[in-house]
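> example.struct
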């Protein structure tokens, strides 16, 4: 079947990606992967190059003095500089610490600020300092969690305007700068909606008389996945930048904390109370060495992050346009897309390669996000649903108040549990996130799935659903009655098409309702043995 490209012919779309998919990403054959925001897919040639490197070179623990250890240490230093260059960060002005992931980088900063302030408690009263923390509403839980260590208080900014008013000193309570260490954390891109936040805030904070003492912590994990992270101007860069390499390259499973050397916060980081022997244990040197191959492979396949940005921006704009045009027969929209008024699909400065939405029935009621995810999984389409560890985004876009969210939490709502509909409102979203290797076929396959399974769906979808048995998810096994329903001729092309769509929908929903109730009302299924 030839996939439709109607209305899609931007020059920025990289058609070469379609040519390299089969060779470099054989794991994607017959699969539609739309969760690059969680982790993208490593290229086959990357994995082969890493295997060849590690099997032909002898690398030892960098803490030892042997030749293999010296080689490993040299490679680590070399790749540290290579990583800085990838982000246009001059090693003269920036340092880079390898960590497990972006969350580990944030925790490292939190621990340093907490330890610094606790260390001043032995000083005279006039020299004691307290840790104060502020963050933006769009922050991931990893950023929000830092507030628990801020004994000097914390604040959540509910909008961009509140941040800018604070920078200008409007409606802000005065603080004793000499006795308070202040940190502001925010994300470059919402992991929920893909909205990109202003990159100018670190510089504005640094140069404002009201916030010049504030350190900035920038969560670049979602942003760096499909956009260049330009740190070429040290004066405008954040004090601390956190990211995860596996979101960019697929492998290795590694993160980084980039530190602006001129920042006073660099000294705070160096004064951590924990001492693990110079470095906190042995570096993940094999993963760091693999990172060098990741840089080379990425450049060979995709040229640069600017090319990736152009490609994914064009593709995401196409997905948004098509999603917004989906309608039930009665004219009502099939999906509700959540986006901010400051973000425009097709504009890489304000919107990333992520779309958050919910599916609606013809009567306007919502289908549970977890139901959509499981139905997609049964068709080998992989996305994510839930609140996405972003309570601020859930509160804003889904219309939940703080009190309502707290009540839901007391009743058992968690990020790790299936997202359902409560009192007519969803507790989460469906998220599609594209990456460098995404192509038009992925978008069209997903759109066709939505139309076939949820177009003109009834209100009788199962209230809960268990995991789809692996064999059924892979092969799409139909019962004879469903197949007969799907293939039955009804005398007209339009009726036949509708019957086929209903048959496919029954297939998915029968898979979803095939479980039985277990303890605590959870849906369980009997997985077939391999």
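> example.seq
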């Amino acid at each position: 079947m030839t996939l439709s490209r109607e209305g899609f012919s931007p020059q920025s779309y990289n058609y070469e990606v379609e040519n390299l998919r089969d060779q470099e990403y054989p794991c994607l054959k017959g699969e539609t992967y739309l969760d690059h925001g969680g982790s993208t897919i490593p290229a086959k040639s990357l994995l082969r190059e890493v295997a060849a490197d590690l099997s032909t070179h002898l690398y030892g623990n960098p803490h030892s003095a042997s030749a293999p250890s010296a080689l490993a240490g040299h490679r680590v230093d070399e790749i540290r500089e290579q990583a800085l260059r990838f982000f246009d960060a001059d090693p003269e002005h920036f340092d880079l610490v390898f960590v497990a992931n972006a969350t580990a980088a944030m925790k490292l900063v939190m621990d340093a600020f907490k330890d610094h302030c606790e260390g001043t408690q032995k000083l005279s009263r006039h020299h004691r300092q307290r840790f104060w923390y502020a963050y933006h509403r769009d922050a991931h839980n990893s950023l929000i969690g830092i507030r628990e260590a801020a004994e000097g208080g914390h604040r959540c900014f509910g909008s961009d305007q509140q941040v800018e008013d604070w920078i200008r000193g409007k409606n802000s309570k005065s603080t004793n700068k000499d006795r308070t260490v202040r940190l502001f954390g925010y994300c470059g891109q919402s992991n929920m909606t893909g909205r990109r936040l202003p990159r100018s805030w670190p510089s504005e904070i640094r140069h404002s008389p009201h916030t010049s003492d504030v350190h900035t912590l920038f969560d670049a994990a979602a942003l760096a996945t499909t956009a260049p992270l330009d740190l070429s101007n040290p004066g405008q860069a954040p004090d601390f930048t956190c990211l995860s390499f596996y979101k960019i390259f697929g492998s290795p499973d590694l993160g980084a904390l980039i530190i602006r050397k001129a920042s006073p916060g660099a000294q705070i980081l160096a004064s951590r109370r924990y001492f693990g022997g110079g470095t906190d244990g042995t570096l993940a040197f094999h993963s760091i060495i693999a990172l060098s191959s990741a840089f080379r492979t990425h450049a060979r396949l995709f040229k640069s992050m600017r090319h990736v940005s152009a490609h994914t921006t064009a593709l995401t704009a196409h997905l948004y346009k098509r999603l917004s045009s989906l309608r039930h027969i009665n004219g009502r929209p099939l999906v509700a897309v959540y986006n901010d008024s400051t973000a425009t699909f097709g504009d890489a400065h304000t919107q990333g390669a992520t779309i958050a939405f919910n599916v609606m029935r013809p009567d306007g009621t919502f289908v549970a996000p977890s139901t959509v995810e499981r139905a997609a999984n049964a068709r080998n389409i992989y996305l994510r649903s839930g609140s996405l560890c972003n309570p601020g985004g859930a509160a804003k876009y889904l219309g939940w108040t703080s009190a309502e969210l707290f009540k839901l939490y007391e009743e058992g709502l968690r990020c790790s549990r299936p997202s359902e509909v409560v009192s007519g409102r969803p507790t989460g979203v469906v998220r599609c996130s594209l990456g460098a290797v995404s192509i038009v076929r992925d978008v069209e396959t997903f759109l066709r799935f939505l139309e076939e399974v949820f177009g003109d769906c009834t209100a009788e979808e199962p209230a809960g659903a268990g995991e789809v048995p692996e064999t059924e998810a892979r092969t799409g096994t139909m019962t004879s009655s469903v197949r007969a329903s799907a293939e039955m001729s009804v005398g007209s092309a339009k009726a036949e098409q509708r019957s086929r769509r209903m048959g496919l929908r029954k297939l998915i929903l029968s898979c979803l309702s095939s479980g039985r109730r277990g303890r605590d009302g959870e849906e369980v299924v009997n997985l077939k043995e391999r």
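> remarks
Residues 305-325 form the longest helix (21 residues).
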